[in-house]
TrEMBL record:
ATP binds at G278, G279, T280, G281, S282, G283, K284, G285. Residues 254-455 form the FtsK domain. Keywords: ATP-binding, Nucleotide-binding. Residues 558-603 are annotated as: Disordered. It comes from Streptomyces lonegramiae. This is Plasmid transfer protein TraB. NCBIfam families: plasmid_TraB. The keyword Nucleotide-binding applies. The gene is traB.
Length: 676
């Protein structure tokens, strides 16, 4: 710390030995000049006032007053300096008074001058030597070895305490003046401290002591180790558990940048959701790839991913996703599916004795302590992998579905072993509801507009020195991370994620192939719940040959309680004789096939049948959310009006074939098996 807080003397004025010696002696001359000036003043004073009683009174009062003034003016310095200064002035003024009244050579006055004066002058020389001595500085100033730096930054009365020096990181304890200075004063001085040390603002930060209002730590990182670009070369822990930390980059002192998703009851860490926020060009895409590749490399997690940009950045990883959609209606279905699986997963975890998701929940339940059987024997139920639901470019989803789209998910999903990841440029309150933002405990804040810092980071972290607005889009990948499991004093420390280049594409494709073969599949409970909402829109992760995953097939089979024996005939057509001739054409039926420009308008019964067929067509195509606008072409083909379709939608909702969504005028199709 001394190397950063102290300022060594400059070099000699000239190249000669005499000039060098003069330069080294000059700082030590003032005490000796003061000693000589005091002796001369004593001689002149005795010549002028040697016989004056009034002068004696005046000199005595002046001596006391000067000593008191020195003591008061030394309040802003250390206690040792204040006492040393007052003793020096008191001794000098007392000798001067005695010399002026009795004479500088009377009695012991001259001996005191010749012996005491050099001692006092030398004491100041010793103090100056210790002041610039790294080994003795702490003792010289009572623990304040700042070399005048604290005074420059407006904390002259504060004290520097214990200092820890690590590679590229200096941590100095600081004690502020009791009753005069608080943590606010220390944080306000960060800019001046960076200026005094000639460092960028992000290189200095202040961490307050939670148990004190006047104690904390200054952390100084003199070298920016993030300036070097590090390319992504592969996941950090292939085949590990999602409960282990995700390595997404490094801090400015070289330490790894870690994030945890599931909670840990042993460590007291809660499960979390993540907000990834950053302006255009801040490296948000690469940051998301760092997080996603780490997640896909773990054995006990599945990922549902929505990307309105059609997987522009994430295409090489799409094969490893359990469910991937491209925004719009498909994302609307995914949101509804997440809402549906939360209670199903929570119910399963509770039935098996888990208060929160842990890695053991992803294994086959062969432990009697985690059984759903009433007799206490192991149930052998399939395990439940962790679920990550990721909404990329979430501003589009929030715009279409409302700013509170994720509120319920964010508040309830963590207890169900689900983490929500929301990525958008500007998490302002006009895009995301306050309740949703408060339910996202973790944030990866990249460069942004300085006015948007408060939307991403907590105020305490900004006060401690975190300022992503200082980067903007000039330093892609630079970020601050606030998340459970990270020491709070790390929150204002900048980090940088790894960069993805064209060379990373083959590695990502191999990772997706690994996830296809070795990654987790959706458990029957999760697959059943999502199939009950999304129907054929959800197939689960496909294998290398394109077949759906086994769990999704099992979920559909469990939901399908219809009798498949005999001929595949609808109940309404059971009484029709297949050998009977079709009825002849009626008057006006110049076009007997519905949907052509000419022909009779379908009867109400026929129109309802057509409407039911249209719903089946939407479901078969995977479009599980519909509204009147989706039937416009269908209405034109069948000579039906939009108000008529709106009425049929309401009837279908009353019959259980449709369910209302959070968006007015939009309905979610209930899969046919579930409705049956």
């Amino acid at each position: 710390m001394i190397g950063f807080l102290g300022h060594p003397q400059g070099g000699p004025d000239g190249g000669s030995i005499r000039a060098y010696l003069l330069h080294r002696v000059k700082p030590h001359l003032p005490p000796w000049l003061g000693w000589g000036a005091t002796g001369l003043a004593g001689a002149l004073g005795n010549w002028r006032w040697g016989e004056s009683a009034a002068a004696g009174v005046g000199l005595t009062l002046a001596s006391v007053g000067l000593t008191g003034a020195t003591w008061l003016m030394g309040k802003s310095t250390s206690k040792q300096r204040r006492l040393h200064s007052a003793v020096t002035v008191a001794a000098g003024s007392a000798w001067l008074t005695a010399a002026c009244l009795a004479g500088p050579t009377t009695g012991p006055i001259d001996d005191l001058y010749l012996m005491g004066g050099p001692v006092v002058a030398l004491s100041w020389n010793v103090r100056m030597v210790l002041r610039h001595n790294p080994e003795g500085a702490a003792g010289a100033e009572g623990g304040s070895a700042d070399g005048g730096l604290l005074e420059k930054i407006g904390l002259a009365r504060a004290q520097i305490g214990a200092t820890t020096v690590e590679p590229n990181r200096v941590t100095a304890r600081i004690g502020l003046e009791p009753g005069e200075q608080t943590h606010d004063d220390a944080t306000k001085a960060l800019g001046r401290l960076a200026s005094a040390l000639d460092l960028p603002a992000s290189a200095v930060r202040y961490t307050p002591d939670a148990d004190s209002s006047r104690r904390g730590e200054y952390v100084i990182v003199p070298e920016d180790m993030l300036s070097e670009v590090v390319e992504w070369e592969g996941p950090s822990n292939l085949g590990g558990s999602i409960a282990e930390p995700l390595v997404i980059g490094r801090y400015d002192d070289g330490a790894p940048l870690l994030v945890w998703l599931p909670g840990d009851p042993e460590m007291g860490r809660n499960s979390t959701h993540i907000l990834i926020a950053g302006g255009t060009g801040s490296g948000k895409g690469d940051t998301a790839l760092n997080v996603l590749t780490e997640i896909l490399s773990r054995r006990d997690v599945i990922v549902w991913f929505s990307d309105p940009k059609a997987f522009q950045d994430f295409a090489p990883l799409r094969a490893g996703l359990d469910w991937g959609v491209e925004g719009g209606t498909q994302t609307e279905i995914m949101v509804a599916a997440v809402e549906a699986v939360i209670p199903a997963r929570t119910r399963w975890l509770g039935a098996h004795g888990y208060r929160q998701w842990v890695p053991a929940a992803a294994e086959v339940q062969n432990d009697p302590e985690h059984t759903c059987r009433s007799d206490g024997r192991a149930c052998g139920c399939p395990g439940m992998p962790f679920l990550v639901t990721w909404f990329e470019e979430a501003a589009n989803t929030l715009r279409n579905l409302g700013d509170d789209t994720f509120t319920g998910i964010a508040q309830e999903a963590r207890s169900a072993g689900i983490s929500l990841v929301v990525s958008l440029q500007r998490p302002s309150y006009d895009q995301m509801s306050t309740s949703t933002r408060a339910s996202l405990p973790s944030v990866i804040a990249l460069g942004c507009d300085p006015r948007d810092e408060g939307f991403s980071l907590p105020e305490t972290v900004i006060d401690a020195g975190a300022h992503p607005g200082a980067w903007g889009n000039r330093r892609p990948g630079y970020c601050y991370v606030v998340s459970p499991g990270i020491d709070e004093d790390r929150y204002p420390s900048p980090g940088r994620t790894r960069r993805f280049t064209i060379r990373a594409v083959p590695v990502m494709e191999r990772l997706a192939a690994w996830a296809q073969r070795n990654g987790a599949h959706a458990d029957p409970v999760t697959a059943g719940a999502v199939s009950g909402v999304a129907g054929r829109a959800y197939t689960g992760r496909t294998t290398d040959d394109g077949a759906p995953q086994p769990a999704a097939l099992r979920a559909v089979e469990e939901e399908d309680d219809m009798n498949h024996g005999g001929l595949p005939v609808d109940p309404e057509d059971a009484g029709i004789d297949p050998e009977e001739e079709l009825p002849g054409a009626e008057e006006g039926d110049d076009a007997p096939i519905f949907g052509q420009d000419t022909g009779h308008k379908p009867s109400p019964a026929e129109a309802r049948q057509l409407f039911a067929q249209a719903l089946e067509e939407f479901e078969g195509a995977g479009q599980m959310v519909v509204g009147p606008k989706d039937f416009m072409d269908w209405c034109d083909r069948n000579n039906l009006s939009r108000p008529w379709v709106s009425e049929r939608l309401k009837e279908a909702a009353m019959a259980g074939r449709l369910e209302a969504t959070n968006t007015t005028g939009r309905w979610r199709i209930v899969p046919a098996l579930t409705a049956a």
